[in-house]
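Exercise 7. Predict the joint structure of the components listed below.
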Amino acid sequence: MRSAVSHTLKRKFAQTFDLPPAVLLDQAAIHLFGDTEAKIVNHKGLVQYTTTCIKTRSSQGLIEITGEDLEIVSFSSSEIKILGVIRQVMLK
Amino acid sequence: MTSLWLWWQGYVTIRLRGPGLERLLNKIADLDIVLFQVERLTSDVVIARLRVQDFRRLRPLVRDSHISVSILDKHGAPFLLRRFKLRGFLAIGCLLSFLLIMYLANFIWFIEVSGNSTLAAETLKEALEDLQLRAGMVRSAVQPRLIEVELLKRFPDLAWAQVEVQGVKLEVILTERDGLDVEQAGPGHIYAAADALITELLVLRGTPQVRDGSTVRKGELLISGEYYDHRGVKQFGAAQGVVKGRVWYEGVGEAALSRWEAVKTGRSHRQYVLAIGPLRVPLGRSYPEETHLREAREWSLSLGRALVPINWSRINYHEVEYVRTAVPRDQAERAAYELAWESLRRQGVAEELVLEERSWVEAVADADGIRVTVQVEVLEEIGLFMTH
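Solution:
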């Protein structure tokens, strides 16, 4: 209950001061560069890593990227950079 | 993708094998360790790259899990330096090679001439050598502007000369004139380039001042640029025409009837010389050329097309005595005749254009030699256009 209130307040604050909600709400950001490169910022951990599917946790739920020859080119606590043929990006 | 900075810091390629690899990857990331090129090989094997200093921090994480970690490869500057530390001579060799390359880069090793179509390569080569331009010279000694000016002065047929130093290569780019464009040259007359007997006169524009069969002196006016056009108006333009004439040339050659021949006494000495660029280190003494014949053999170090300025020479000095011997008269005459013809060739006479040739032999004043004079008559274009 308290977290829902805090979430609403933060969103309102972001809207009032025209700030990016991702910063205040600790949301994950997914950047897609064509269909060969993806960058997930502010993830909460890797769940599954295969060459056809990469799943990561985020404050919004599970981010699933499917494709072919997927490879994590850099992996840190805040960012995952993926290369390969990206077919689908899902938020579950 | 590994950056140059990562290479400089040094990084390792590791293999992680075991169940629940994603959990371990998350734990690694939580320690603020960045993994690069994380490749999934099989369901229980992942290959990743990380900085050397981060690798030590993995130990506590791996100790509590069922995952084994092994180093597959080491990359980067720290490992390279360590290898050099173990192989001191390799490092010294690399350093010396680098210094040698740096030193050799200070010289000109190739001279490339382009754009000459009528100018003979040999003539250009001689001119460049005369201007102290040769392979092996120090780059800083090259004065491109000076060479360009000198080339243009020496070869009036050149419209443009450019000298560029590109690394160890010196490029001489030339552009020759297409021929004198009389229209562009402005009004002028055609004069005789040499003393001659006119055999053919064809006027395209202008007024002829001589006739077929006239004898003319060098510099005499042949075709005037002044003429009357079809309306009878006096014009002054560029004279055009063909004037051919018989021109005489004379060449003189001298040859001695005796010569001094060097006869070996049988005594000889040997000397070795090591040359590194401009530095020459002689091993053994040298002997004067007045009393010794010099016989040298050189070995140069070459790397493909490039010539390295290191060579080793062996010089044999043979002691000689000079003895005077007589030269047969016919041999001397032949030699003098050849010299006379050389002199004619230098004046621009081509043997195939000679209509008539005369020669005579005289004794020189001290009677120890002969002089051969060759006179030739050549048919050639003698008209020389000059602007007014």
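Discussion. Chain B has ten helices and 22 strands.
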